[in-house]
Amino acid sequence: HADHHVDHHTDHRAERAVVPEDRLAVWPFAALILAAAVTLFGYAATDSPPAWLTRTVIVIVGAVPSGGHAVHIGLALLLLARGLHVRRLMALYLTAAAVLWSALMSLLTWDQPWRLLPMAAFAFALWGARHRFGALPDPARLRTAFHLFVGFAVVAFVVGGGGLFLQRGRLSESLTPAGLGRELFDGLTANPGPMTLAGRSWFLDGLTLLGGVTLLAVLACLLAPAPAPPPGTEAERERVRRLVQHPDSDTLAPFALRHDKSYVFSPDGRAALGYRVFLGTALIGGDPFGAADAQEAAVEEFLALCRRRGWRPAVLGAREALLPMWREHGLHGIGIGDEVMLDVAGFSLEGRSIRNVRQAVRRTHKAGITTRVLRESALDAQAADQLLAIHQRWLKGHAEHGFAMNLDAITAARHPDALLIVAYNPAGKAVGFQRYHPVGAQRPGGVPTALSLDVMPRDPTSPNGVNERLIVDLVAWARQQGIADISLNFAAFRPIMDAGSRRTPLERLAYRAIHLLDPWIMVESLYRFNAKFRPGWQPRSVLFRSWAEVGWLAAAALAMEFSLPLDRHRVAPAGDRIRGLGRRHGHAGMHDEVRDALGDEDAIGRAIRRRAG
Prior knowledge:
Layout: H1 2-6, H2 8-18, H3 27-45, H4 51-61, H5 67-85, H6 89-109, H7 116-128, H8 139-166, H9 177-188, H10 203-222, H11 234-244, E1 262-265, E2 271-278, E3 281-285, E4 289-290, H12 292-309, E5 312-319, H13 323-328, E6 332-343, H14 355-366, E7 370-375, H15 381-395, E8 419-424, E9 430-439, E10 450-453, H16 466-481, E11 485-492, H17 494-499, H18 505-521, H19 523-531, E12 536-544, H20 550-561, H21 574-584, H22 590-598, H23 605-610
Parallel strand pairs: 3-5, 10-11
Antiparallel strand pairs: 1-2, 2-3, 2-4, 5-12, 6-11, 6-12, 7-8, 8-9, 9-10
Helix pairs in contact: 2-12, 3-4, 3-5, 5-6, 5-10, 6-7, 8-9, 8-10, 14-16, 15-21
């Protein structure tokens, strides 16, 4: 597995060299096959088809088929048309094979020889355009299709052959082994065989249905996009960890370190991006990270990989600065909200507009709440268990969600650079915490350019204002460290929230839906919490190739957003945390620079804990 990933990107570059990246149209081929499928469906639906329709069907099939056989072929052509439209090389192979087979039959029987000219023209044009079909056949899909075919063939032989044998007394001719095979094949392909079955019977219709299901299942598997790749290896993750700390990296870069993401690197290894694949959609969370002048090369590698694997590329959370670059590569999008940014140097509790935050912080001081900043890897087992318990109570049995702005493995020390700020009651018991990940520490002094918030759970019995207190104290700590920005979270549909009385009728309808669904999606509540801090807003967009792919993108994004509870790394027991520490003992990496710069505990912890607020 490790060896596979070591050579992973070298292999991709080699593939890229032999797979031309051509944007020429393929729709004429798909449209012609689609027209043939529609013609066959029309023929099958007509009791007495007109002569011109019959002649057209003969051009397509080479003979006058039964209605059921026409439906079988039409469904197969429908799948092939879609495969050609999405540039599957396997669709080209199968279409060319079908045309050549039909032409060969015409040559052998010299039946309808006039068909050979249009068929030869189509085959020649299709083969000449083969370089336009960049989605390569996937070995895993080929194996699955073979297994499906063998499985259905066994079922057809046992059920179909056994059924014919049991009903041999109703057949018009004596049943021989050769006759059994011929009749079984004709039944599966919806062709009238040489024998007839006396009386009404559902059996032959069942054979036809089984043959159709087999054909569609095998074709759908052959033409499906490549399956999702395995998550990145620890070696790749270590490379990503270093790139996250590059000064050019974005505040969403740390979330590429989730253990369910795969990676694509630029050819020189100075930039990368993290993605997941679901329902044939390869979804990137945030922008590429690493050296700015290498980020576009990483994007090109990713898009080339999507073409080879037949995936639909998409981006969730792209920032405005890179939108022109994405547009140059064929991805367009719409704004979905804003990242909430705090300017550390400019943040202040002074003024009427931030009075609610100031009052919340004062309440926690009166309740005796203290805070402490420490590295997650500095937690002992007892402290880790306390924080895990808080996290579980905070979830209340519900699923935590997140993809573009969530990490995993809470308190498991699997993210060496992660920082915690923990709130304690007067008895010294933790009542809430927030986890942040530094960004851009690969600069003189090793001080990060920003911190990105992951989660902010608190005990339901803790005083109101604990989260506000943790944020305010972290800002004070970050100011002492020389950190410029803190990324809090994401405010979806912020323009609609901000519009107030200026909302259009459509925006009012959208706001009403958001308000009603807020107990489940927490969009409005999170926006109101964010707005209290007078933050800056960093617009973020979702990117896709065409509106026809938006449905697939929405399904994939929602599935990934709500898949965290299925991730066994998301919450790890303290024992796993200790084992993780043991595995990492003595390992040097970029996280050592972050540790040296920030320390295991805040340098001004006592001062923060004494603040009057």
